[in-house]
Amino acid sequence: MRNKVIIISVILLLLSVIATESCRKCDNEQVYKVADLDFMVTGVQYNANANPKIYYFLIENDSIFFSFYGIILEPVKQLYAACQLPRSFGIINSAYACDPVLVSMKNRITDIQIITDKDYDDTHPKGSNIAEYFDIVVTYEHTNDYYSKYSLQEFLAKTPHVPDQMTLILNTEPKTDTKFNFKLRYFQEGSDLDSLEIDLGKITIIK
Fold first, then answer.
1. Rounded to 5 degrees, what are φ and ψ at 106?
2. Model confidence at 92, in pLDDT bands (50, 70, 90)?
3. Is 45 contained in some domain?
4. pLDDT score for 12
5. How many CA atoms lie within 13 A of 136 on its CB side?
6. Is 113 a domain residue?
7. Which residues of 34-71 are buried (b: 16+ CB within 10 A; e: fewer)?
8. Which of 20, 51, 109, 194 is most buried, taking the most CB atoms under 10 A from its CB?
9. Which residues, 6+ apart, have CB-to-CB distance to 26 below 8 Å?
10. How many angstroms separate the first and last alpha carbons of the chain?
11. SS3 state of residue 114
12. Helix, strand or coil, per DSSP, at residue 28
């Protein structure tokens, strides 16, 4: 009887090791591609401290002080590839040994442009790209990177993977208080979707 108990214990231990090893080989990761972008124009305030936070608020009367003007971008995801773990065949289910599923994006961003429909200042006339006047706050959930802030140009220089969420924040005032109708142009690596143009709507930017 004692020998049977020892044998059963050894078998259970081996099954447990196999289950855990399955997770390591698989990396327990799902990779998504970007099929579309959801967006929202919003008021925004970013607090840079030891634990960065970002706050959103509604824009009233279609006008906003320039440094509170924000654009939220969230990718619409489609599953591109997923690790297939071996089916459990015994007493121990391998899922119990696995870490939570990691989700990452296949696509990389190649450019983001914000086109002004009116003269923004002396160096950016109607039709200009004013992306250099924006910062970006990004979240990558699979690496626990929340609310990291960069200049948009600095971020794009890395040809980064698409974040789980992006918020563009205007950082430079216009020459005068003006009602603009910006257009956002988004470019990424990918055969299914490589570019999008979004009409951001009319809004008065206050200097």
1. -75, -40
2. very low
3. yes
4. 53
5. 25
6. yes
7. beebebebbebebeeeeeeebeeeebeeeebebbbbbb
8. 109
9. 83, 84, 85
10. 84
11. strand
12. coil
Residue 6 banded pLDDT, cuts 50, 70, 90: low
Burial of 206 (0-12, 13-18, 19+ CB in 10 A): middle
Tell me if 14 is assigned to some domain: no
Total number of domains constituting the chain: 1
Q: Which residue has the tokens 């257009």?
A: 183
Q: Supply the DSSP string of 125-179, one letter for each residue.
A: -TT-B-GGGEEEEEEEGGGTEEEEEEEHHHHHTT-PBPPSEEEEEE-S--SS-EE
- For 128-162, what is each residue's pLDDT tens digit? 999 999 999 999 998 899 999 999 999 999 999 99
Who's near 196: CB < 8 A, 6+ residues apart? 36, 37, 185, 186
Q: Which pTM was predicted?
A: 0.77
Tokens of 192: 């299914």
Residue 91 has pLDDT above 50, yes or no: no
Structural domain range at position 61: 34-81+107-206
Look up residue 71 and give its amino acid. Answer: I
Let me know if residue 63 belongs to a domain.
yes
Banded model confidence at residue 106, pLDDT cuts 50, 70, 90? confident
The amino acid at 164: D
